[in-house]
Structures are given as C-alpha cells and as structure tokens.
Q: What sequence folds into this?
C-alpha cells in the first residue's frame, strides 16, 4: 500500500529521547499505550496502569471530561519512561473522564533513529451512574426483506427496548443499484423523524438493502484506480444538507464504475466533513454476499435472519467467548509508520486489558478459540486482506470473534459483491460488527461504561485531533505529523448494529413482574408493581421506567435505585386512555477494565390498560372479591352500568393462568362468579398468593387474594 500522509499538526515540539536502552525497529504495538483503570470511591481516585513499552522515554497524562471536545493542552502529569502507573486524586465523583496517555519514544525506522509518540485512551470515573437512556434509534428497514422477517424484527425491537432504546421503525423500498432520488427519500425520513423527536434521536440503523449514498473524490487506500465517490452512509447522519452539493466533482477515472462522480449524478462532492455529524449510522446489508447463502431461495433473507439470530443470542448472553482480543498485523514487514494495527492494540486493550491481547493469526486462532474483539490488516482487494484471509474463508471457516476491525486496500469501499468488510456479519459464527480501521482509525474505549457502539461511532466519525493514532517526527516533518489518512472522511462507515453494547446480559433481570391498578382518595390511579429479585446477590437494586407507547422512550420514575421489590406509580390519567407500559431493570455495580461503575440489566416489560380516572375509579369500586383470605371458595362480584365484554381469570405469582372464570358479554347489573380453588385440570391449588384479573374493554383490574385452605 502506498504511503500517504496527512499533516494536521502545525507544531507540537521536538523531542530527543533519552532512553537508556538501545532503540529497536518499531512495531504497530509500540504506537499504542495499553491502558487499564481502577477506581476507588473513598477517597475518590482513579489509578491508570499501562503495559511497559521499552522504547518510551517519557509518559504524559492528559485528562478531559467526556463532555469536553478536546483534552487540555497541558498534561496533568509527566512521568519517566520506567513508570507504568498514575493515580489521579483530583477527580469528582459522578463525573466520567477520558484519559490520554502518550509515550514519547525513540525507535528505529529504515535503520535510522526517529522520535515518535504513541497514544492510549480510556474512559472511567468514580461512582458513575448507569447509562440507561441511549435515546431513540431510527430503524430503517428495506421492506421486501422485512416481510419475511416479521417475528425477528419484533424480537429486535423488544431487545432494543429492553436496553433502554426508543424505537422508530420506518420501511423503505429496496434499492439494489445507486439511485440518488432513493437516497434523498431516505434522508427525508431522517429529517422527518428528527423534527418529531429532536435531539432524543441519536442513531440510525439501516437494515437490508437500503439506498447507498456515494460521495467524494477520494482514495483513502491511495490507489489511483480507486479515486472517486465511495459509499457514504455518514450522509444520513449529517443534517447540514447545504454542504452536500453535487456540482463540482468530475472524475470518471476509477476502475470501478460505481466510483465515478460527475456533476448532477446524485453523488455528492463532499470528501471530508467540515462540521460534525449529529447522528451515528450503522448498516447490516447482505446484498451480493453470494458466497454465504448457497442455493437458498431467499439468500439475503437467510443472511439477515442469521444476523438477527446472532444479535439476539449475544444480547441474551448465549455466546461463549473469552474476554480477550487478537491482533493480526500484516503490514509490519514494511515498517509502516501509520501503524494501522495500533488501532487494534489500543482499542482492544482499553476494553479487556493489555495482558489479554495477543498477536496471532486470526483464522488459525479463532477456529478453536473465541474472543471479544479481533483486528486484522494486510494488503487487500475487495474480497481479501493479505495474511488475514478472504471472503470465502469467512463463509467456510469458523471465525469466533464478536466484534471486528479489518483494514486493507479496496475493501473499505464495501458496496460490491462478496465484500470483505461485510463478511464477518454474514458469517455463521458470532461476529456482529466491523469497521475499516486504519484510514481513519476508530476509537471504542467508551464501551466499558455501558455506552453503545453508536456513541463511539459518532466520536470516531467526527474525530479530527481529539484522539490520535501517533505523532512521528521526521526530517520532512520536524514539528511532528499525525500519520493518519481519512479523519472525518465521508467513507467512514460502520457495518453492524450501532445499538449494541458490551455485555448487556451481565446483570440478571428481575423476574415475576406483576401490576395492579387502584385509585386513591384523590381519584388518581395508582399502578402497583411487584417483582422478584434475581438470584445471585442481595445487593441488587432496581429502576422503574414508564411509557405510554410500546416502543417509545421509557421515563425513569425513581431518582435513586430502589432497594426492594415493589413500587407505586401515582399516575394522573384524567386525559389518558390506553395502555401504560412499565419496565423494571436491575441495578448493580460491575467491574471491568475501566474500574467499577453502576450498570443496569436488560429490562422486563409489563403493561396495564387504563382509561381516565373516573372510569378507573368506577371499575375499581364495582369489582370485589370475598372472602379474602380464602379457605374453600372465592366470590367475584362485577357490577356493570352498561353491557360489556368481560373476561375474568385466576393467575399465579408467575402470571400463569390457573383457570378461567368467565369470558363473554355481560348485561347491565351485578354478576357474581365463584372459584372453587381448582385449576384448569380440576386439581386443588396449593396454599399461596394468587390474582383475580378482570378485563373489561381496555381496562384491567387485578385483585390480590390468598388461599389458606
């Protein structure tokens, strides 16, 4: 691959390393500082450790709040090259910090000594609250595939909701070849939903063959025959429409016709973002992945279903993988100062720790082992990366890594049959994401705090100089140069579901959620929720969330986590008729490579139908159950002011139907039914607590009863 430099630092400094050891040839590993963090709540402090780098003469520690755009200009500490630990005692509890650790080093390149700086990043904090409100995801689904995947898409929406996402679903026409009008039509959907949901809309998930935008006059892999427009999903997330012109680029020299870009062809001129994107974008698209589906009658549907099945299995903790990572670097022989694979070392170490990352051949290792994150790079084609493998390998060999980064020539331009960048997603094993990390490099260190990929994707796509892969000092660039191409490039696309996060299953869910609707003396409805704590710890606490739409945003009702197994929600229903949805999530501390922080389980959702307060009050008063406790027989009395369909049944504590009491229309008046304490099999029920549930129209009333025969 031709060396291609982008100098974006005018002046850093000139450093002469004073290392006591003789420099050696540099490796991509030397450009990455492998970080681990530990947090201490009292007194509040954060200790950062890193794996020793024998080429380092000095370490510099920088810090910023995660909400800040850039790190402070001056380091908070400067340490000797033999030091591998720093403790920050000036942290505020509840604040998420990002740390940059840079190592000023001396190495050999081409037989000559040269100065360089390697970087590591980690996000952490003391007493960090759970990240439980990621916002809305706009799920844009190609309609033809969706028709065959109805149950899988509902399951996906349920999974998204369980992890706190509000879900907006829109379907679009299948678009196999480039269509500028179709691209604009999809973008209009984004604008419409942004106008509706505002800044609560955070990310876009493109699923199926959704129209592919193209933009730019670029060849980030530096091949002259590959210069022109590249796929640019980032267009959908960048809402400043006026900068997306189509009148200046005029280039038809690329070997692949899809890269040709001429005025008024629907492909945009923009090559590099001048302003930040507002929304992150991820795509799962199996079009043209012919090596994976054989003779299937619905080839894409089969692969899309496979992906959704993998996605669901991962979210529910059904994958068996090691909390480790693998880097397969096939550019080292050329002494490449861009250090593409440092992206693998830096990111994976921040998530699993430097001791858990190793250099190894991907397919050889992952045929018998598994890992959380894998990185591979090598000279490429559209369907291969030298030293890594081919798309055919992904179709026929085990590849047991959950998340993946790959880099090499050509295949970053992913909208072509059997493309390598999309191959991990189509594979039968567990891979769920892939990014072309090298030009530019990507940064995923936020994931340890419960942030979804969507957050890191946006930070990486908008990155110019906040996060740096390296700085190298040469005769040509005595003041330093960041050896990176493609920063803020329109081609930086993310393959996979952007809503995924690390280990969403780690904390167990509450069980046996039940609801009961009553009316207080102020004629306000009270929804009473009860649940059982999951096994494993007596320290589990809980958050309660409510929504009036099934897949809308669920508002957290409690200020601090609840230490108990019940909650009362006083809900003024004067102007509301319909179903209220509740979600309960377990809260607990988790410890990982970024220290200890609070996190939440996937949520368990229940619902209850309500009308306005007066109807609720009337219904509650006109239903009674006696005696209670019950020794031999219960009487259920319903008094109706107008004819209505009524269903009455007995439930156990797990919400299973024990028996049905009545299911038909009732006339005006008082109606009495009895339960002889038998179940559907006419067997006597054991002593326990049960519920009488009565449904009338869209109203539900639940009465708690005890059997003590």
A:
């Amino acid at each position: 691959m031709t060396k291609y430099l982008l100098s974006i630092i005018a002046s850093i400094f000139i450093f002469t390393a004073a290392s006591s050891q003789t420099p050696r040839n540099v490796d991509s590993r030397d450009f990455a500082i492998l970080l681990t963090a530990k947090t201490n709540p009292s007194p509040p402090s954060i200790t950062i450790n890193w794996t020793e780098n024998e080429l380092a003469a000095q370490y510099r520690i920088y810090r910023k709040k995660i909400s800040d755009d850039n790190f402070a200009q001056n380091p908070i500490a400067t340490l000797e090259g033999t030091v591998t630990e720093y403790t920050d005692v000036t942290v505020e509890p509840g604040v998420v910090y990002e740390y940059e650790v840079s190592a000023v080093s001396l190495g050999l390149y081409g037989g000559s000594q040269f100065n360089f700086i390697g970087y590591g990043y980690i996000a952490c904090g003391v007493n960090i609250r759970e990240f439980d409100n990621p916002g809305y995801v706009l799920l844009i689904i190609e309609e033809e595939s969706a028709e065959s995947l109805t149950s899988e898409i509902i399951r996906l929406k349920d999974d998204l909701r369980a992890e706190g996402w509000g879900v907006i679903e829109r379907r679009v026409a299948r678009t196999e070849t480039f269509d500028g009008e179709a691209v604009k039509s999809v973008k209009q959907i984004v604008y419409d939903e942004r106008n509706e949901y505002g800044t609560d809309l955070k990310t876009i998930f493109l699923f199926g063959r959704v129209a592919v935008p193209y933009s730019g006059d670029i060849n980030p892999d530096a091949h002259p025959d590959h210069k022109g427009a590249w796929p640019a999903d980032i267009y959908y997330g960048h809402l400043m429409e006026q900068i997306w012109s189509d009148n200046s680029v005029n280039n038809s020299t690329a070997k692949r016709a899809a890269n040709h870009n001429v005025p008024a062809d629907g492909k945009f001129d923009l090559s590099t973002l001048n302003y930040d994107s507002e929304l992150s974008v991820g795509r799962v698209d199996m079009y043209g992945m012919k090596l994976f589906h054989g003779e299937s009658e619905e080839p894409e549907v089969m692969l899309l279903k496979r992906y959704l099945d993998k996605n669901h299995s991962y979210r529910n903790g059904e994958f068996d993988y090691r909390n480790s990572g693998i880097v397969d670097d096939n550019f080292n022989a050329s002494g490449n100062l861009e250090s593409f694979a440092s992206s693998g070392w830096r990111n994976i170490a921040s998530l699993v720790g430097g001791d858990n990352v190793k250099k190894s051949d991907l397919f050889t290792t992952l045929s018998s082992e598994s890992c959380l994150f894998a990185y591979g790079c090598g000279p490429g084609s559209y369907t291969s990366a030298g030293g890594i493998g081919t798309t055919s390998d992904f179709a026929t060999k085990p590849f047991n890594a959950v998340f993946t980064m790959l880099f090499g020539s050509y295949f970053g331009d992913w909208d072509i049959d059997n493309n390598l960048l999309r191959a991990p997603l189509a594979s039968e094993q567990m891979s769920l994401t892939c990014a072309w990390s090298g030009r530019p490099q990507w940064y995923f260190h936020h994931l340890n705090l419960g942030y979804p990929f969507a957050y890191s994707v946006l930070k990486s796509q908008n990155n110019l100089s906040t996060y740096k892969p390296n700085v190298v000092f040469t005769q040509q660039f005595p003041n330093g140069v960041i050896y990176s191409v493609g920063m803020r490039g329109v081609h930086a696309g993310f393959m996979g579901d952007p809503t995924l996060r690390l280990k969403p299953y780690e904390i167990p869910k509450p069980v046996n959620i039940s609801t009961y609707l009553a009316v207080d003396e102020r004629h306000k409805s009270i929804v009473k929720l009860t649940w059982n704590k999951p096994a494993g710890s007596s320290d589990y606490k809980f958050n309660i969330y409510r929504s009036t739409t099934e897949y809308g945003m669920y508002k957290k009702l409690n200020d601090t986590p609840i230490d108990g197994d019940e909650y009362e929600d006083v809900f003024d229903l004067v102007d509301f008729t319909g179903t209220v949805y509740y979600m309960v999530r377990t809260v607990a501390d988790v410890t990982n490579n970024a220290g200890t922080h609070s996190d939440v389980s996937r949520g368990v959702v229940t619902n209850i139908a309500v009308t306005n307060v007066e109807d609720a009050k009337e219904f509650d008063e006109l239903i009674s159950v006696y005696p209670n406790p019950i020794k031999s027989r219960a009487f259920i009395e319903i008094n109706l002011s107008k004819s209505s369909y009524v269903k009455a049944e007995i439930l156990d504590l797990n919400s299973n139907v024990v028996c049905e009491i009545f299911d038909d229309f009732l006339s005006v008046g008082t109606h009495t039914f009895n339960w002889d304490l038998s179940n559907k099999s006419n067997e006597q029920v054991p002593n326990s607590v049960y519920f009488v549930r009565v449904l009338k129209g869209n109203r539900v009333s639940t009465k708690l009863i005890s059997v003590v025969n």
